[in-house]
Amino acid sequence: MKDELLSDTSVDFLYTTPEGLESAVVGLYTLNRQLYEDRSLNGAYPLILQAKSDLAVGVTGEVSLYSRLLWGFSLGDFGTASGINKYWVHYYKIVDRSNAIIQAAENLDGIDEDRKNQILSEAKCMRANSFFTLYRLFNNIFVNTTPTNPDNAFDKPQDKTPKEEIFTLLKSDLDFAIANLDYTTPEFGRFTQGTARHIRAKVAMWEEDWAEAAAQTDAIIESGNHSLVPTTKEVFAGDLNHSETLFTSNFERETIGGGGEHILNWNIVSESHAADGVVHSVENGGAGVGFLSLNDYVINLLNEDPNDDRKDNTYYIFEYLYNDELSLPAGKNIGDPLDLYVNHPTDQNQFMLYYRRQNPGVIKFLDENAEPTDRAHYKNIMVYRLAETYLIGAEAHMMLGEDVKALEYLNEVRNRANAESKITIDLQTILDERARELAFEGQRWFTLKRTGKLFEFLIDHMNNDNLNESYPEGNPKDILREYMQNWPIPQEQIGLLGPNYPQNDGYN
């Protein structure tokens, strides 16, 4: 029997025609989205970076095991073999697909130059973003720009790639994309010049090239193509297709190619509906289980300015309101804030109920159109946005001694949230503002690692003291070591690398 191809799409079509290569680029975005869609271990994987940051408190459930350092901190634990391994495999898969598209486009004859450069720019931007993520997570990574083929499929990298070589490729890929991408795109969710410049600025910050970072952020802000939306309420509303957005991962319910649902919101909003007098509602953050939440450190930062509205059901939800007459406790009224539980410093029976049902949560991933009882959402995920561009620019200009410009950028973000302007600036001020503005968007861990503050801030702030003392495996602050700023290369991957490939220090 002879196999017959019934589809117009084949490997030959994908890599030998302009239309095929454009389809392959679309496939990169689909592949990139898969990390958010992965609901393994109750949706823990896409929240590992948030769980391991200094802004989160791990309450219960699988994702909390990463906060508690029971998972993802050694070669022998299940969290490394599962979630940490997922990140290595996910981003190297994107790199390999990007390599195939880049090589095919560069070798394709008879294609319009602009069309070719668009394909190359998106693929190079995706490759740079993936390698950049891998480097920041794992440090000891290898760079390969040749796609996997029958001749090299069993080749084993023998050593890590030097940092200088990694960053040379990142800058080359991103500079090409900046030169060839427009600021606007007819298809929302694709890389643009603004995206490429934003990532390029982040790369420059890792090299302490403050002038380059400042130039890139200034270019985005002054281009006229992006601006902060007027209110914090608008930032995460709807499909995120607005002037502040630089890059999203897109979903659409009941649509071919719309992706599978994600359960990020469910993990990070409290289970308020389990309290008397409260039922599921969008106003109370939708369905939540409260496995991971905001810790006291970031809550206190947000409460410093009473007018800061980021906590007023825009980014975060600080109060869950009584909304069920049938089960309303005596003395309570509809619309009053839920206040049945106390975050007691030592009584575990009390503080666990508080964390699960009443602790402030994050609603940046809430699908307002989902049924309030539905944990599965199709909300677009904000990956990069202009508020972070402003804060990168503020830090870069400050490091250049340009405090006036740095404060201008910082206060653009603060004033949009109705917070008072700052009149002095230093690194702590910027890190505090990044915490308020960008918490749970997946950037915090990288920022603290880049600035050399990760270990210090985790020791000072990770989780909350009462929960840290209650974990049966011990206080994670006693487990934490400085070498853990690099994730362990999972044993499964070490077995596929050369015999002398270096594991990150501390994990041997």
Structure description:
Helix 2 (18-37) packs antiparallel against helix 6. A two-stranded antiparallel ribbon has the order 1-3. It has a two-stranded antiparallel ribbon with strand order 2-6. The protein is 47% helix and 4% strand. The longest helix has 30 residues, at 78-107. The protein is globular and about 75 Å long. It is built from 22 helices and six strands. With 508 residues, it is mainly α.
Would you count the extended β strands for me? Answer: 6
Shape: globular
Low-confidence stretches are none
Strand content: under 5%
List the helices and strands and how they pair.
Elements: H1 11-16, H2 18-37, H3 40-43, H4 48-51, E1 56-58, H5 61-67, H6 78-107, H7 113-138, H8 163-180, H9 193-206, H10 210-222, H11 232-235, E2 245-249, H12 264-268, E3 292-294, H13 296-303, E4 316-317, H14 348-357, E5 361-362, E6 381-385, H15 386-399, H16 403-416, H17 427-438, H18 444-450, H19 454-461, H20 465-470, H21 476-479, H22 491-494
Antiparallel strand pairs: 1-3, 2-6, 4-5
Domain RagB/SusD: 342-507
Subcellular location: Cell outer membrane
InterPro entries: SusD_RagB_dom, TPR-like_helical_dom_sf
